[in-house]
Design goal:
Structural class: alpha/beta
Strand order of the largest sheet: 4-5-3-6-7
Order of helices and strands: HEEHHHEHEHEHEHE
Number of strands: 7
Distance between the termini: 78 Å
Strand content: 5-15%
């Protein structure tokens, strides 16, 4: 009589000991820390910044922690005449910055519409970019940039979101004076507004540009000029930019549970 078959059980995969698990976690933490240090070094040193085609690619690798740290570094750089209390008021907390380091495409003009759609969808409002509030001068998206020519290029790149009821509005150019911009904003429904920090502040102070319907504020930080300077590298731009980002009634909304404004650095 033949022997019955005996089922052979495959050996279980070895279970790592608690000490090995802890080591694995520590290694991951160490890897993240090294990555942070490398990214921080890249933006702190012009020699180590990866710059191609007018883009500083270091910002693409920066998470909320690194963005907060770098912005604070630039506040200290240009805020030498500020008191410690005044300087403290200029800082923006880490949790205010939306982490967009998962976005893998280059942060070029051509990719900006996809970037906005991606993070708009992440917020659960995929169709909102082509809409606008029923009132004039109350955009859902503001893009802050460095100069008039750049504002014109950004406006063209985002024109796909323009409709008859929702304008992609360029608020600054050499030939557009503040009084002309005031007239334009007063009578225009806009979904996306694009301008320099000083022009945006001027329109806000005049009471014609409203932040009431704002959902996202995008800083055009990866773009650099021929001297390899971005919006955070020039005193005449960095100071009004920080004034805008820290504006009362706006700064609180970066971390609010309701009526939240996403702060994105592109």
């Amino acid at each position: 009589m033949s022997n019955p078959r005996v089922a052979h059980k495959l050996p279980d995969a070895p279970i790592p000991s608690p000490s090995k698990k802890r080591k694995y976690v520590v290694d991951l933490d160490r890897e993240k820390a090294v990555g942070r240090k490398q990214a921080k070094k890249a933006v702190s040193s012009g020699e180590n910044r990866l710059i191609t085609n007018g883009l500083d690619h270091a910002f693409a690798k920066m998470d909320s922690f690194l963005l907060s740290d770098y912005v604070a570094q630039q506040v200290r750089r240009f805020g030498g005449d500020l008191s410690p209390v005044e300087m403290e008021d200029k800082y923006i907390p880490e949790k205010a910055f939306k982490d967009t380091s998962s976005w893998e495409k280059p942060r070029s003009l051509q990719n900006l519409p996809d970037y906005l759609e991606y993070f708009s969808m992440a917020r659960g409002r995929p169709g909102s970019l082509s809409s606008s509030p029923s009132v004039s001068g109350a955009p859902h998206t503001i893009v802050v940039t460095s100069a008039g020519i750049r504002a014109a290029n950004l406006t063209r790149a985002l024109r796909k979101f323009q409709t008859k009821q929702s304008t992609v509005a360029k608020l600054f150019a050499k030939h557009i004076k503040l009084k002309d911009a005031i007239t334009f904003v007063t009578k225009t429904r806009m979904g996306i507004a694009i301008g320099t920090p000083t022009r945006l502040i001027g329109l806000l102070n005049e009471g014609v540009l409203s932040l009431e319907k704002l959902q996202r504020l995008v800083v055009d930080c990866s773009h650099i000029d021929q001297k390899k300077r971005g919006i955070l590298d020039m005193r005449e731009l960095q100071i009004p930019l920080m004034e805008l980002l820290n504006r009362q009634g706006l700064k609180e909304r970066y971390t609010a549970s309701e009526d939240k404004v996403d702060l994105l650095f592109y």
